[in-house]
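Slide 14.
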Amino acid sequence: MHRFFAPDIAATLTLPEEESRHCARVLRLVEGDEIEVVDGRGTLYLCRIAMAHPKHCGVEIISQQQCLPHWGSRVELAVAPTKNLDRIEWMVEKCTEMGIDRITPLLCQHSERKVLKTERLHKILVAAMKQSLKAQLPQLDELTPIAQFIGERSTAQRFIAYCDESLPRNERRSLAQVYDPTRDAVVLIGPEGDFDSAEVDAALKAGFIPVTLGESRLRTETAAIMAVATMHTLKMSR
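Slide 15: predicted structure.
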């Protein structure tokens, strides 16, 4: 069954214009056809098309159910966007497919991308949410200076992953060894040039735990996906 995103569906009984166009014009669905609609906050609606209009497709709600995230405790990722925008778009898509609650783009000392427009990333999140049959849309933050992020975040488990050999390495342990899948967690992933030593020092002083994602030197977007995949693997193996 086709799935659509409409954050205000319960109040308006109408799909947003872009979703209406896809429903009525692209898929050519008609009055009486049944569709699924998610509001991005965890509710799945079974609906029947009442008016197949390409700009404001009207529906009637047949039933609804809460679809809580299957992964339980929160999974959050804070990552410096890559210079190549395609790579960060691919990353947020795959993380959403696996399951993630919040993504915070970080502005770091070595960041090659200093500006990030989130409109397209939001559309990718919506598409990945629908494709992977989820009802909850991940929170996507605006580009955030790392110092601000470190100072504000009080998540139960806080990890920072880095690979620069000049940075403190003695205390690093595998994320798979220290992560508790029953508790909320956030993982910090640095830019292509890795975190600055002062950034790592600030994170460690704020209580972030230094971790490694293995022996290989990973690209930023690969490291982010590896971190999320590791957490989900441990959740499933409980």
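Speaker note: Residues 220-236 form the longest helix (17 residues).
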